[in-house]
Amino acid sequence: MANSIKIGTHDGCFHCDECLACFMLKLLPRYKDATIVRTRNEAILNTCDIVVDVGGKFDPSTYRFDHHMRDFKETIDTVLKRPEGNSKIKLSSAGLVYCFFGKEIIKQILSELEDETAIDCIFNMVYETLIKEIDGVDNGIPMYSGEPAYRIVTGLSSRVDRLNPKWNSKDVNIEHQFNEAVALTGKEFIQHVEYMGNVWWPARFIVKDAISKRFAVDPSGEIIELSQGAPWNQHFYMLEKELGAENQILYVIFPDANDYRVRGVPVEKDSFVCRMFLPEKWGGLREEELSKVAGIEGCIFTHAIRFIGGHRTREGALAMARKAIEIGKSLK
């Protein structure tokens, strides 16, 4: 019977990683109606069909996915046997379940998506932008060296932690709280996968089209035009290499509401350091003052850091990018 299937995890204080691990497993048809058994009793755990975050064993062949052992050093790259990978983040139970079942889980959520390349890319992005964070927090891996200027306490792991019974609370049903935590992590996970499949992945084709047509936008090939605003930069670096344009593109222009934006291409994803910033004299200026200094009518603004600017028209944004390249190259 389906309801005789059991997922084992530890009892007591719960954490984000095993809550999400349990939720992800229950997205799979074979575990959909499984009972979650919370215990540290080895005899009971041995009756479970799969065990996560407890038991002192990592053995996929027997469906045991703990990560607390002293000699456990697995990362996504070692588990998936990626010789080119350089991940230093040790996996938690969420990461382990995701590595072994993630693509199958994604296919359950994005049931209409049959493109295996898309599934692979979404799998990697969900790991990089969600699961890695959970792995790092659970394993106590610092994000950086030194003391941070402030701490973020609104992350998913923190929100799960606050669902645990408080030291001074009475008559709290911890199993109910655990189920609340499973639901919380699950909602976040589903939203994340759906965003990657329905919003992030389709943007790839807008970026690919823009890079392919860059010489029609400007003979230099150093400016691309997106047909619409989209999350472009996470696709850009892979596609510019794939299309033979690596490190050649300096600016991106795209529509934004009723105006246009001109954005310097970052030296790497998520950086505000550009391959070529907008001209220094433009920095922080707006409207008529900027138009006068730039010699281009209709300018709206240039950010003080000079990574982005705005113009009222597509032609004006293109003119800003061209002038910025002209000035930038003259200073080299």
Describe this structure in words.
This protein has 332 residues and is of the alpha/beta class. It has 11 helices and 10 strands. The chain has helices at 16-25, 42-45, 76-79, 93-109, 116-138, 156-161, 174-212, 214-217, 233-242, 287-294, 314-330, and strands at residues 6-9, 35-38, 50-52, 58-59, 64-65, 223-225, 251-256, 259-264, 299-302, 308-311. The strands form 2 sheets. The chain has a 5-stranded mixed β-sheet. Strands 6-7-8-10-9 form a 5-stranded mixed β-sheet. Helix 9 (233-242) links the parallel strand 6 and strand 7. Helix 1 (16-25) packs across helix 7. The chain is elongated and about 80 Å long. The protein starts with 5 loop residues before the first strand and ends with a helix.
Distance between the termini: 73 Å
Main beta sheet strand tally, sense and closure: 5 strands, mixed
> What is the tally of helical segments?
11
String of helices and strands: EHEHEEEHHHHHHEHEEHEEH
Residue runs with pLDDT of under 50 for 5 or more positions:
none
Structural class by secondary-structure content: alpha/beta
As a whole number of angstroms, the C-alpha radius of gyration is: 25 Å
Number of strands: 10
Strand content: 5-15%
- Largest sheet, order of strands side by side? 2-1-3-5-4
Helix content: 40-55%
Mean pLDDT across residues: 95
- Tell me the overall shape: elongated
